[in-house]
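Hi there, hope your week has been kind to you so far. Please have a think about how the structure follows from the sequence. I've dropped the whole record in just underneath, so have a look:

_____
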Amino acid sequence: MNMRQKLPEFEELTGIKVVWEQLAQDQHRQKAATELTAKNKDLDLIFVAPDVDCVRYLKAGWLLPLDEFLADPKMMPPDWEVKDFAPGLLGTGRILGKQVAIPQQADLMTFMYRKDIFEQKGAKVPETMDEMEQVVAKVHTPPDVVGIVNRGTVQQGPVPWAAYLYNFGGDWLTKDRKPAIGTPESVRSIEFFAKLCRNYGPLGTTSLNWPEAASTLGQGRAAITTDTSNQRNIFEDPKQSKVVGKVGYGMFPKGPGGNKPWIWTAGNAISTLSEKKEAAWYFILWSINKKNQLYTNLKGVAAARSSVWTAPETEDVRAKYPDWVTTTLETMKISDKGINPPVVAVMEFRNRVGEVLVKAIQGLTGDALKEEAAKADLQLQAILDKTEK
């Protein structure tokens, strides 16, 4: 949910005229990179997903660090309160030690399940990975209902899997920024995720993007999915879902490495090429002030500001979806992990890992999987050598 329809309010308030261009995600990234490369001074603000765009953009010198604005009392309304933003979400906008984006929204890895099926089967929301496998098996009643559905394509499988990676104690990179997909922790996370998809998921998991995976649960053909919390908007919409009121929302289960489920956000960043940096900063301040964060939250996009969740205006949401609210707030407290690898070539890196995941879902296990992960690390290092300059 963007702020486009509220632009007249900003323009009347400040006298600043806004030219807004909205494109599909891939087109947006391509055009932004093209204009920044061409040193277009007319591009003042860029909508970014920090864990996708900002390492590349910052290393290219395209993003203005916002730290000086944040530290200047003259540039900060006294009631704006940076501390009101969930620390984990704010942290994902801090790239290479610099705050380049302020979070506008919150997407969080969530365990989502059919409450009615759990009740029928006497199943409880799992707290650990071991319990999760047992529960998934318990509610797996094919061909009518599979135990779990996750997105599983080369491009999209790594998204849900990243939370499994972190909770098994793995990560995309080692501390010295070497590929870490072949580490024991990472391989165990791949094996576990793939086993759930292979043994308890629908046929053709490796062809499922997020809309298809969400639809599988929304149409009543799956008991569990692990994905973004904002899929609530699908599951609770009668036009898209047959399970309205039947879906529960719980914490993603902890693993051997603890509990660091991913959190994702997006927001506006300022181009270093802009000749209107202060005007761009005023737009950022306005677009995510408390009033506008409340506005977008009530439109169905989870807010990044903590105060929104306890505001009187959101009482209906808290009453109707108490487990969704509680899970969202708790996850924002415990994690600052993004979805994606913190590298320049995010998608190239991620897709190579996705190839390993797909092979595992299709049945690659044991030593053969370890060899495939080790091979991927070598190829990922080649990607880093080419792009991390």
